[in-house]
Structures are given as C-alpha cells and as structure tokens.
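Our collaborator T.R. sent over the components below with a one-line note: 'Predict the complex.' Nothing else. No constraints on interfaces, no templates requested, no preferences about which chain binds where. So this is a plain run: every listed entity goes in together, and whatever single assembly comes back becomes the starting point for the next discussion.
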Amino acid sequence: GAGVSQTPSNKVTEKGKYVELRCDPISGHTALYWYRQSLGQGPEFLIYFQGTGAADDSGLPNDRFFAVRPEGSVSTLKIQRTERGDSAVYLCASSSGLRVGHEQFFGPGTRLTVL
Amino acid sequence: EDKVVQSPLSLVVHEGDTVTLNCSYEVTNFRSLLWYKQEKKAPTFLFMLTSSGIEKKSGRLSSILDKKELFSILNITATQTGDSAIYLCAVVARNTPLVFGKGTRLSVIA
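Returned assembly:
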C-alpha cells in the first residue's frame, strides 16, 4: 500500500477483555515496530520485528502483551485481560533498512480505550 | 538507561516568529537522532542527523546536531499556523529502536 495502515482506528473495550490490533506495513519493508503513546508522552517502544521474527521485545510491559508477524508482512499486537492502564494510542511503524536507525514511517495508530 | 529530554514542553508563538526547539540525550553507543512532526496521530519524519555540525534544511525548517554536548536543535523560521503540532525528538543507539522524548507542543497563532 501507499503507507502504513492500522486497524481499527479506535477500539473501546471493557476491562478484562482480549483485543487484537493490526498493522499493515509499507510493501517490501522488512522491519516493523510497535509503539505505545500515552497522553502527553512520546511514543514508547514495545517490540520490533525483522522479517517474521521478533528481534527485540524488551519493551513489552508484561506477558499480557504479545505480537506476531507470521508471514513477514502484516503484524498483530495482542493484549490479554486488558486493564485501564493499557488505554493509549498504539502506533506501528515500518522501515526498509536493515539498520535500526533507518527512517521509520508511522501508521495513523489505534486509539485503545479500556473502560 | 537511555534518555531523551525535550524543551520546552510547550510553546505559543505568533505567525512569523522564529522558534528553536531543543533536544538533549544520554544514550550508550549513539547512532543517530531523528526529528518527527506529529499533528494528529502519525508522526511524520523530518530529519535524521548522524554527524555533528552539519545543518540539515528543508524549507523553513532546519536542524543541527552537537555530539560533543549531546543535543540537537530544530529551528522553524517564519512560522505559520500549519506548523502547529507536537515535535518529537528520538535517538537511536546501536541495535536499539527509537527512544523518544516527550515532545514539544508548538502552537502558532494568527
């Protein structure tokens, strides 16, 4: 596609429910990143994929969070037993470079609200 | 722990003013510093800086990096209302993803 797309754009759920957030990167981009941005804060790194494998998942806050990228393109961020503190905008980015510092292109994000 | 600090956190200026946004950092094995503009949700890329003292320019925006003093500035001249946004600074260390600052919220009023 022309840019990074994310679905849904907004998600409202109840505490304790399971949610999946989807990211479709720019075609051909091998690197994919997930970030979380809370109000008044900069994006906070969660996990980074190079191809199908998670190259760095050190930013995932706990084991309720999991992400996959089975075919090296689309990625899904999965959150189990959601808590109110998980409410944030979840941003996905992709880049073509093998180096981590290569320019990253961001999607519009998914605003998650946990009631 | 890698750290990026931006100042000011917010700024209100009039159209036509020049602004300077600051970003200081403490990281191990610095590789590059990036500036992004965030208007609604998606940050859009502005500059990537890897070498000290070399100014990068794009229209009314320019940026420079000082690797000795560990900071970068982003300048915007002749500001317009369309420049209103959050400006994010991020740093890449060796083999680590972007570490972002909290951003500077710029408001340009007519």
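Summary for T.R.: Chain A has a mean pLDDT of 92.
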